[in-house]
Every structure is written in C-alpha cells, then in structure tokens.
Amino acid sequence: MSDFDLDQHIRKVPDFPKPGILFYDVTSVLMSPEAFGWCIDELAAPFRNGGIEAIAAIDARGFLFGAPVARILGLPLVLVRKQGKLPGDSYRRTFDLEYGTDTIEIHRADLAVPRRVLLLDDLIATGGTLAAAASILEEAGSTVVEIGAVIGLPFLNYDRLLGGYRVRTLIQYHGE
Ligand code: AMP
To answer: Ligand 1 pocket by C-beta < 6 Å: which residues?
Structure first.
C-alpha cells in the first residue's frame, strides 16, 4: 500500500451519536479530492486485473466508495439498503446491534446471477452489518471474495463475526 496520511483527513467527533462513542466521520475524506481518490484507488487496487465480478456496498456511506470503485473496475454495483427503501422483491436480514436490531435488504433481481463480490462499507465496527450483508450474498449463491472498508476498528473485535472472510481496511484505530 502506498504511503498516504489518511488520518489527517478523518474528522473525529466525541460523543456522537451518543455519549461515549468516538465517531470517525469518513465524510471529511470527501472534502479532499486527493484523499478520496487515494481511498478509491486503494480499495480497487487488488482487483485491477480481475478476481471479482461485482461490488456490493452498504447504505449509505458505503455507497460513496462502492460506486466509484465499481465504475473504475467496470463492474456492476449491488446496493445493500436499510429497510423499507427498495421497491422490488428483496432479500432481508435482521441483525443485532449493541442496543436493539437493524434490518438490511437487497433486491433479489440484483443477485439473480451468482458472482464473486467485493463487499464495501465506510467503516467496520462490530462487523454486524457486513456479516448480515455477506450472509445474504451467500444465500443467493454469490461468493464474498473480500470485505473492504476505509476505516477499521479492530478493538471492537469484528473478527468474531468476519473471521471467515478476507478483510482489508485502509486505516485502523485501536481505541481512544
Ligand atoms: P457495525 O455493523 O457495528 O460494524 O457498524 C458499522 C456501521 O456503523 C458502518 O456503516 C458505520 O458507518 C457505522 N459506525 C459504527 N460505529 C461507528 C463509529 N465509531 N464511527 C463512525 N461510524 C460508525
């Protein structure tokens, strides 16, 4: 991986969205075309010469990175959406959060053809969202070749849920 100081482009907001959480705001990366371009290039790099057949990206900040990666690799983009956004027949998964649950959906038509997929989000915390998305892709017959994100928080032990996958993050934070 080339040398680039991504950390200075990531805004850290204490106590958001609730007390005790340090929020790593990836949207500040978008304010630097250089930093944004670096992230896109790095996420796409292992697949420049093939190996995958589609990108899947998580609602909403994952879309910011998934769409340009799909475009530069010339591959289809599958959207993993929060509940209630998709008009067509969809796969659905409900998974546990720290408090409560969340639900994601993917259009069945988008997964009609099994593909080798790069699954992207902006940040991996517990890994719950990505694990749920990966299980839908697999139910549909696709293969998750890699899970990628700009930011990884390994101290939240996402390995527990994503241990069976190749996971790659561009920058890691190890607690506050
Ligand atoms: P998880 O399912 O726990 O891995 O949570 C991942 C999702 O929640 C990602 O889509 C992130 O956008 C968001 N998220 C969780 N924790 C944080 C955090 N500390 N800072 C910024 N985003 C977060």
So the answer is: 21-24, 58, 61, 121-129
